[in-house]
Queue: 4 jobs
Job 1
Amino acid sequence: METHKSYGRLRWNPVSAREAQHLDKQGASSPALQESKFLQNLPLPSTVYDPKQPITKKLKDLINNYAYGGAFQSTISTVCQQRIPELDRIHNLYQFYYYIDTLATWMPGLRVWEWQDNIYHERTDYLRLTQFYYYFNQPELVALQSPVDPATGANLTPLSLWLREFAVEWGQFLDTPESAKYLESYKFGPEYAYQDYNGGENGIKNYKTFNEWFSRTFKDIDRQRPVAQPDDPRIIAFPAESTFVGQWAITTPAGEPMPAESSIVVKHIEWPIPELLKDSAYARDFEGGIFVHSFLNVYDYHRQHAPASGKILEAKFIPGQVYLDVKLEVLDTAEERANVNSNLASVVNPCRYLDAQDATGYQFVQCRGLFVLETAIGKIAILPIGMAQVSSVVFVKPGTQELIRLTEEERKGKSYDEQVALINQKARKEVVGKTVSKGEMISAFLFGGSDIVMVFQRQSNVNITTTTGVHYPVRSQYAYSNIAQLLKF
């Protein structure tokens, strides 16, 4: 029951050659404030360029110290020859360093154009993510990263560590006032539904940073996203605004002659549940249960809510990889362009575009959060999975909408692992042991697309009532438990 998410399959709006040329000017007659043309000051291929951003300097040192120059140059040449818009201008490592410098301080927004009484927009935030990770999906660079594998994927190579550090650095920039410069452009993307969130018709400009906007909250969630059967503990609610991917049965541990942990099997690969839950004291409780997986798009509501009422037994952040599987899609004919499956209106999509896929499995080695919730139907493990730049899974203080984050002073002088230890210490103090109601806010993502996974116990006898490939509102019905007798928590 596996599917792939397709962030980039957008409605094609046929344009004439003249119109295409107009659109390429990127905002010449735009009704919205526009960013400067991306890479507009890209050095010539013959120019030597020294990185300016600290994270780019670290990449240059890594490439030099590990003799990765040949692999990077081969990757850059391959991508350049594929005629992908914008990336076809990058020919060598010097230009690639300029690209990373530019991306590290890129201010998110939508590019918007007006033409003959029509308004078009480009999902530029999504585009920047897919462009970056497409380079790191090329074979030469994949070989230098930790594999997406349950046995060895947790041990990060120097390049995988750099990718995670880049995600953190970009995330910190998106906490700055500078990152909010183009937020008003999101009014031109109907799928972002800015009018449904706090801020209202004109209040989008009141968000102080991009991450504030990205983690926005509904004006009245009880009216806009009511909880499915709030008084019926057998009804499990969607923990996130998301599209259902599928469900998998979890095996029970096997002994001789072929020992195996409890796991799900995807494409003939065993993904152990103890690895997903990473040292959880409750990992064995889910043997023989059910694993379910949904994904969030970049424009979705990015806060998560309790799928059932219960007591939080465990809450922690699990460090891992930052990964995004990106493919090049080519629409060669008008018929192919017309058949692109999307309900998003007025989105400009070139004939050659990058599209992120979401197979099940990588979640076991990705940065993720973990809640173990004790409920009337048994234990439920809830895992917000960070994807790409969404390596930041942020806990919410129960009973509030307050994000539990480290201050700049708390981060100062601490390594990544030390910061993870400190945030988990805060989670144990402020989250573990608290009781939450079904539909209550429990966590949030910062920037990008992401996944949500839940794991149910066998005794819960859960029947998933959702349909693969369908997008569901947060707090709507996800499943029904046929447990013989409700439990006390």
Job 2
Amino acid sequence: MDFLISIAEGFIGMFQEGGETFMGLVTGIIPMLVVLITAVNALVRFIGEERVNRFAQKCTKYFVLRYTIFPFLAVFFLTNPMCYTFGRFLPEKQKPAFYDSAVSFVHPITGLFPHANPAELFVWMGVAAGITELGLSLGPLAMRFMIVGIIVILLRGIVTEFITDRMMKSRVKNAA
């Protein structure tokens, strides 16, 4: 009988913990996310969508900007999953590399800008809980995540663009 009671208490306890976690989000991170998303949308409207579009097209001319600044802006302003729509500014041969860069950046940005990918927030919060328990600041870790993330997306973008280019040339040769 004690075994069944333990299972029942553990089962309901799991939902009680979930409720407490949810309330922590409702009173903590969710209001901050709403304010951040509102501020980003207001900034885009203030600058003007056409200006933002022109800037994006200029950013894609050079591979270093195309796979660092451009994915950062896409993830920051449009958040996940809308950030992938920035690929519309690129020629077909560069779209796979942009997607690879953007999808690889949605986690590293979360530490500094949680509005960019709230779905990944649970991963960051797990890491953050351990760091704060040690009495350490989250700022340096968030910056390191961001810097390493930018390096990784640059490398992934370059490699994926190279592979895509080779595959497209191979397909043209085989078709002829």
Job 3
Amino acid sequence: MKILIIEDDERLSELIAEDLGDQNYTVETAQDGLSGWELASSFHYDLILLDIMLPKLDGISLCQRLRSQENTTPVLMLTARDTTTDKVVGLDAGADDYLVKPFELQELAARTRALLRRHQTNYSSTLKWGDLELDPNRCEVTYKDTLLSLTPKEYRLLEMFLRNGTRVFSRTQILDHLWAFESCPEEDTVRAHIKGLRQKLKSAGAPPDLIETVYGLGYRLKEI
């Protein structure tokens, strides 16, 4: 799951990004409204955390612009304003939820999960592919009841495949899904993570070609 944080308080943005990253989300950040708009209109995100008071383009205007372009990505507004009028303005602009600063990271995480469940009904369901199972609620992966010890990137990579059946993903698409825009590595990194994930699956008893290479195109789960 990929989340965009648009927040000009760099310290707060880093705290939120670190906390969400620990929960196996892929996180990207922007420090002003225009940068946030460029990212939100160019890439797919599962959730946007949006501050209202932003330089260059305020959060209300940014949210209105997104909705006018038929962008339905859920938006959680973050703001120091806590009056009823301010909340109504934010929600009327197209936001899905509203969180007043200062807030606890636990509450932010809970609201994040709630919004993701609301907009993606299978988010909390166990994902299965033959004897392979991924539990998003517990962030656990098992093969025939053998628990796999995956890195956060390996976990997100496997989740991406499981949520998309036999869809083929190119290396570029995998980079876009799993790495933050500002720290995107080389395509060889994808090969290394695919190799590591295959080895761990094989060690648990899975077929060595469970994640198969479609030459010239990318990777996908092998049909059962």
Job 4
Amino acid sequence: MDEKREDLGPLLVEQFRQQMNNLSAAIQLLTPVVREKAGPQYDPYLAILHQSLYRLIRMVGNLEYLELPEGELALREGTLDLAGLCRELGEQVSPLTALAGIRFSYEEEIGSLLTHGDGAQLRRLLLNLIANAVRAAGEGGESGLRLARRGGRAVLTVWDNGPGFLPGTDERELLQRPGSLGLGLKVARRIAALHGGSIVFEQREERGSRAIVSLPLRPPEPGELLKTPRMGFDGSGGFSDTLIELAGVLPYRAFFPEDVE
């Protein structure tokens, strides 16, 4: 029975992805027709449709990633500026969370931090943690990202001022907060481990909680080229990775057709 359940995972992902691709193609064809024939009063319905697609892309992408065997989790490593990556991510996230009535801020102790890593995967890690923090903060709340250097490690802290969690809370409960399957945090943990790092969840001294990511720094060799990760791309087909990972916590207004085309 257990073996059958294990074999079911990849099959389910394949079926989900096939239907998701069909839905995506239909939405792309339907959107311009509805906007031309029916007018802008139908934009909110199209936005809800787009948001549902983005949520589905995220769920299928997380399931697919977690189903991959350890040997297939290759990183596309290169030299990158971790501070620049975080700064750009903060600039992209802040206006989106503002639509949900949540203030997002980015702080850094160092303006440039060169290391080796997979920039796209590190973005995914941080976006998953940010989505969790935004959900915890709730409307009227605050969340943020902070980058620091501690010796030979980069320390990235994603925090929120939500209700936090009680001491001794089981990690399974933490990973499955209301409205969440917890897949994103499992993906984040896996990406951190592939980079030789770890993620720890803590209650903040004041209100809220934080996720602390610790990554070893691997400075570039002299003359090595700096790589800029491709922003706004997801392996599911060219969709914005920021919108995909935040689809579950943003209002439908973030998905109006002109914003996601």
